[in-house]
Write a structure and sequence with these properties.
The complex is a heterotrimer of chains A (about 425), B (about 170) and C (about 575). Chain B has five helices and seven strands; from the N terminus they run αβββαβαβαββα. Chain B has helices spanning about 1-30, 75-90, 105-115, 130-135, 160-174; strands at about 45-50, 55, 65-70, 95-100, 120-125, 140-145, 150-155. In chain B, strands 2-1-5-4-3-6-7 form a seven-stranded mixed sheet, with helices on one face. Chain C is built from 13 helices and 25 strands. In chain C, a hairpin with an 8-residue loop joins strand 19 and strand 20. Chain C is elongated, with a radius of gyration of 41 Å. The chains are: A mainly alpha (about 425), B alpha/beta (about 170), C alpha+beta (about 575). Chain B: Keywords: Cytochrome c-type biogenesis, Disulfide bond, Redox-active center, Signal-anchor, Transmembrane.
Chain lengths: ~425, ~170, ~575
Amino acid sequence: MSGLLNFSSNMFVVAFFLYCAAFILFAVAIMGRRWSNRDPESHRRKWGNIAFGVSSLGLVLELTYFFTRWAGGGHIPVSNMYEFMSFLSMMVMVAFTVVYLIYRKTILGLFAVPITIIIMAYAAVFPQEVQPLIPSLQSYWLKIHVTMAAAGESFFAIAFAAGFMYLLRTVNFSSTDKKDRRQQRWVEIVFFSIILVISFIITVFAFRAAGYESVFTQTKASGTAGQTTSVTQTVEYKLPPIVAPYQSKIESYQPFLGMTKPLFSAPSWMNGINAGRKFNTIIWTVISGIILYGILRLIARKPLGRAASPFLDGIDPDDLDEISYRAIAIGFPIFTLGALIFAMIWAQVAWGRFWGWDPKEVWALICWLFYSAYLHLRLSRGWQGRQSSWLSVLGFLVVMFTLVGVNLVIAGLHSYAGTN
Amino acid sequence: MGKSRKKVQIIILLLIVILGGYAITTQVSGSNGKPTEGSKAPNFDLLGLDGKVHTLDEYKGKALVVNFWGTWCEPCVKEMPALQAQYDKWKDKDVVIVGINAGEDKMAVENFVKQVHVSFPVMLDPEKDAIQSYGISPLPTTFFVSPNGKINKIHLGQLDLQTLDQQIEELVNS
Amino acid sequence: MMKEVIAFKNTKCECGHQNPVGTVLCEACGRPLEEQDRESNEVLEMRYDGMARRSQRANPNFIDRIWNFFSSVKIAVYMIILTLLGSMLGTIFPQENTFLNIDPSTYYKETYGTAGWIYYKLGLSHTYESWWFILLLVMIGASLVICSLDRVLPLYKALTKQRILKHKQFLTRQRVVYQGPVELESKEWVEQASVHIKKRGYRVHTLDNALLAEKYRFSRWGPYVIHIGLIIFLLAVLARGLPGLHMDQHVAFPEGEIKHIPNTSYYLKNEKFTVEYYSEQDLPKEFQGKNKVLPKLFKTQATLYECTANCNDPSKQPTLKAVDHHNIEVNDPMDYKGLKAYQFDYDLTPVLRSVKPSLVDKKTGKDYGTFQLKIKDPERNYKVGPYSLELKEKYNDFGLDENGQPVTKTPNPNAPAFLFLIKGPNLPAEGVHYFYFPKQIDKERFQQDAINAKMNGGSVPLELDVKGMGNVDLSMSTTYLNIRVDKAMPFVWVGAAIVMLGLILGFYWQHRRIWLRIDDGNLTLGAHTSKNWFGIRREIAAILRKMNLEVDEKSLDNGGNHS
């Protein structure tokens, strides 16, 4: 790697830690209000400004990362999962900064900055080397499409943060009424999903630090009219294999906690070599997610929703609702332009067809339809407050599935495989 | 005012029904522009082995069987006698059988025609224009075109004498 | 008769204005029309300014009912949700059109088991071409047209004929409200306030003690502009399917040959095809040494010809004129008057185009001369020195059938073979038959000499021999181009551009209105915006501050988020 690219990676790491610091400072600004001998309002303002300053510095460094990598790699760094995810994290910070400057709500930082941190950490899971571009990716339309789409999606992330905050603020966590219980349960599920993502990242990094590796081979016979050709593929597991690929042989197995062979094989419909590995990753994520959630529950000694809701005391829920809606209103046109119109232009230039019902395209359309429904419901049917907050939470889930899930699940289980 | 509004409503609803109906039928029939049974047979301008240019229009008013074939294609070769027999049987009854060769040299086609004693008109499609406009993928493919130029039936794969006879009978009676 | 009178009474406001059926707020003064509504203190429903929608009528008939169905936003949202869910279903397994050559009736079952079989049986393997999916899109299109028509006209009417003096209840029941005493005389206060309001970009209308300020009204048309754009987009997509507007074919172009593009008057010559790969040091470390190749460039240098004469007459040679030259790359198609050629695929197998063999005396090695033998459409007769060669038969891909007869196995010139009848000195009068395989490998594989000896009952004294590669003409590669015509595309883009324009108008500006009236030294102010209440509150607080009224932004909020 050239010096510039090295410098760029360092900037990325520093930005990451600055965001972590900003998160802690935002927490101090919000939680410290109730510390003795101080005026809560001036405390919040003072620490909120410091936290915003630190997060802005982090953004400057992440921008430095981005542009130095651009210069060092020779093309705009949005062409693999690592680059795209780190770009998305940067855009989330940009969106946060824009919304923060409009509304000046310190509490927003407490929820938006962690989204950036998680996305950045997720980015780091993927191989970080600059890859040269294959011909179909050598198009400036593609670059404009990807960056604009990420910009739009990042506003949806802010809408998610504000919407989730609205729910934490308004759901009655002490009630045992059936309706309230349902709301509480769903808030808990959102928390658990976020924890799943975090635990996935932690698991991957923990085993990577330990240098874990097991290898499987799979021989597949593909018969076409009498001629059978067999293809042998190998797959490296970076997490201890609980599940082996469908009809595979162990090449090497590094024992883990007394486990010396996989507990079972992937079912036949997961016949791709990487499908088994991905399934294994999912199992690990769920296991470690449950453990992490359990630990957090033990610390809080109550459901996470109820534990988190006091932070939001004194925040006007209407403002949160407004922020959530405003973020979507800002993001929707950008998303339409980036994720649909520029995508169509690129597809037209590269493949000669502007729309091909490819899963990724379809999911971008699904996101768009979802937020259209949100806007219609809000503007014409008066869905505000709780209903629209739930929609903004769900909407971001759909967005994340489009960005990550489609590559992992839909494309991965049947055809080609992503990098992780 | 009330009247004209109603008219506008009806016109708009009608337009929607027409456009919607068109959208659904074209998509569901899913032909991608290829001719299908019931559609009009595409025109062609092809050089025959007789050295003359032939077009679809020549055969207007006659029942037409268009067979797409190649010398390398075994089922094509096998169905040639059946086609020839039917050509002989129907040639006085306003039924024409033509063979369109898929992009081979004139010489190869001529030799082949001589060898298998084919006397029905055979045309060459060196640039595969007709192959393209008829949307041919496997060979042989046979189109049965009624005297008014509509495609009555498309047969993929080898034809035997009996089916061929039946199809032509049907075509003549249609 | 009585009934009609009552109906009349119900929609007539106390200000004397006669409102159409379905009106919520009086079109003139804004007073709620329903008795019940008048007693409430809830925030007013300001959608379409309380106007009746076009479709709301006293006695709907059949047409009205259909119209009402499509004009309902609730139905529209249902259709959006259904389309969304339908689209999701289509991504569970790959769609049929992602494969070039499969038999879907067996493929899904074999690849995905029972689930795949059910998926195929339900028709989900071609979700996006299924009747119900298209029907949903058509219904969304209908809803777009009817919803817009139904709302845009009343809204336009409401916004073009606004009264300045509104009913007090109309003001106090807005979401942003301020009430309080003022010190100045009412007219003077209104005049001073209007100066400050104007400074913020509002258009201000005053009438004695009342004021109406408004800005960015165009933002209200945003949603309708979006809908118009979407309708154009959908119609353009539909129009693509019309005959003659659309062409899509894949054509192979061997290097160096002018080839006709079927069903057009164009010919294209692939001058040269280039494929480049990244060098080892360009690749990231994880790829290095793993024999991975990553393509860098696919390029076809293409010249497009247009036929100017003898075009549809295959018996004559067409007259061609070069009209365009372009280096076709992925992401950089050739585009000539709407005919587009995209780099699609390539084949690097060399294809023999012609050879220039010498006729040689086997014994003496004497060279009688050469002739050009084209693989495709060869000449029939050749004269070489004292000898005449007549081409009798030709096979592109030589082989023997089950009866031992020579046949061509495929139409591709993989193993070309020629049968000549050679006549001349020192040969029998009827000549000798000579099989010629231009490719050395075929010559050995099919034992050319043995065949010839067998055919003539003894060895042939002559031989055809290609002396050196200089006498071989190869087409080094074949490029596959995707030739497309899509005449409706400009309309697709126009539709998309209009959608974008509408989105920007509707989302980045907000229509804001402020009404105020002063009654007996008491100011009543109400304000409405299509979105961003935070912003309008801030703006009004700033205006009131200029008028020496200190107000907390938040206290202007009259609630109403929870409807």
